Amino acid sequence: MNISCLSQTLMTIATIFAYHRLHRDRRFIVVCPSSLVSNWSKEFDKWLGKASQPKRIVVRNGAESEGLRNLKSFVPLKPNQSEVLILSYEIFRLHVKVIHKAKQIGILVVDEGHRLKNTSGSQILTALNSIDVEARILITGTPIQVRLVSTY
């Protein structure tokens, strides 16, 4: 029996939503490979609905003015509004100084965390560790790596 990537994503979304229900003023960050940014956005919409909170801010391209504007819109606190910032590793690394200004980050999620293995001195790992958050979730492994039943 394997844990699928969908179940890890769904469990993470459920955790974020539960935390949001307890702390309506918290914000959340999901950092993932650029190929998964749209998938995360779609999964939030699928499981929580497009109009529900926490509101999603999706940054697909940090070089565009719209992407940077969306990223900057996450920084100021909004009364009684919870937000999830979804962006890639590279955009996170490039704009960590902007993200660092954001306060009341409840959970930082790092998807495909096994990519950070053996990365001493990594700019991305340094950037991730520099953010003040209440909790961190590291999602790692492929279904083959996350095997619950031994095949011996």
Description of the structure:
- By secondary structure, this protein is α/β, with parallel strands linked by helices.
- The chain contains 6 helices and 5 strands, in the order αβαβαβααβαβ.
- It has helices at 5-22, 37-48, 65-74, 89-94, 96-99, 123-130, and strands at 27-32, 55-59, 83-88, 105-110, 133-138.
- A 5-stranded parallel β-sheet has the order 2-3-1-4-5, with helices on both faces.
- Strand 2, helix 3 and strand 3 form a beta-alpha-beta unit.
- Helix 1 packs across helix 2.
Q: How confident overall, as mean pLDDT?
A: 82
- Number of E-state strands: 5
Name the poorly predicted regions: none
Percent strand: 15-25%
Secondary structure layout plus pairing:
Blueprint lengths: L4 H18 L4 E6 L4 H12 L6 E5 L5 H10 L8 E6 H6 L1 H4 L5 E6 L12 H8 L2 E6 L14
Q: Can you summarize this structure?
A:
This protein is α/β, with parallel strands linked by helices and 152 residues long.
Descriptive key words:
152 residues; 6 helices; globular; 38% helix; alpha/beta
